[in-house]
Amino acid sequence: MIYQVTHRTTFTYTEPVAISHHVLRLALRTHPRQHSLRSSLSIDPIPSVRSDGKDYFGNPLTHLTIQTPHPALIVEAQTVVDVQKPESIHLDQSLSWDQVPQRLQGSTDPEILDAQQFLFDSPYITVDDGTYDFVCECFPPGRPLLAGVMDLTSRIFQDFTYEGGVTDVSTPVQEVLHSRKGVCQDFAHLEIAALRSLGLPARYISGYLLTHPPEGQKKLVGADASHAWLSTWCPDIGWVDFDPTNNCIPHDEHISLAWGRDYGDVSPINGFMVGGGQHTPTVSVDVSPVSLPSIV
């Protein structure tokens, strides 16, 4: 599938900002199933300094400095991206989960070394006895890894309520586990914590999801939203994505933006400013399928 993705963020300030520095992660990353065909990044006011590169995890990164006093900041990223379906995976034919920690030890293989860094606590994801007890039911000894992860994904989908406004990015995993409420980033953080408690690598993925309007209604421009899910590493297969918010293995309607240990590694816009008073952010996201002739 080919999509046009537009992500527009507007910061409105009660007082002019004298100077600001920002880090943007708004360029879609490339991987074997996803290729950017065309992209642009519009910033108003135009930054005095801008540099593009990649962060530690390989996510595209933009640093910018705005030295002109400004009452508002508008950042708009537009991308045309080609997303392919994943290959079929037989969940019951993956290696048993309790053999994975052994495969991670004492290896110099770059893929395994990469997976090892997603085993540990991170700023927004910590493991405790509660997360371990929660996950154990899905992983009896000898169970195939991916079958267990899919079971855990389904359990979060069934037992937790999607509800906005009850959490924020700093809400601990343990609080989400207790309240059984949250949004996509909370469910991704929880499942990652559960997997790490078993010694299984898991990473956080931010991106977008194509949404479908109710039958008989038109899709509203800008009505989509950022999304979050996770990926776990399976020997002999590689990284496999799971979406606990929608109880599925992401297909060609999930568009990856960035990945890291948790949300803190992939936040779309970070930074600091001098002045500005109070500020109000407004975010608009639109994901629309397009045909090849329309992008030529």
Structure notes:
By secondary structure, the chain is α+β, with helices and mostly antiparallel strands. The chain folds into 2 domains: 2-83 and 267-295, Sandwich (Immunoglobulin-like); 91-250, C8orf32 fold, CATH 3.10.620.30. 20% of the residues lie in helices and 38% in strands. The protein is built from 7 helices and 13 strands. It has helices at residues 100-103, 110-116, 129-136, 145-159, 173-179, 184-196, 292-295, and strands at residues 2-24, 34-44, 49-54, 60-66, 70-83, 161-162, 181-182, 202-209, 226-234, 238-242, 254-260, 269-275, 279-289. The radius of gyration is 20 Å and the shape is globular. The relative contact order is 0.23.
Overall strand count: 13
**CATH architecture of the largest domain, please?**
Roll
Provide mean pLDDT, rounded: 93
Class by alpha and beta content:
alpha+beta
Main sheet properties: 7 strands, antiparallel
Number of domains: 2
Share of helix among residues?
Answer: 10-25%
Radius of gyration: 20 Å
- Distance N to C terminus: 16 Å
The third-level CATH topology of the largest domain is C8orf32 fold
- List low-pLDDT spans: none
In percent terms, what proportion of residues is strand? 35-45%
CATH class of the largest domain: Alpha Beta
Order of helices and strands: EEEEEHHHHEHEHEEEEEEH
Shape: globular
- Count of helices? 7
Attribute tags:
four-stranded antiparallel sheet, alpha+beta, C8orf32 fold, Immunoglobulin-like, 13 strands, 296 residues
In short:
By secondary structure, the chain is of the alpha+beta class.
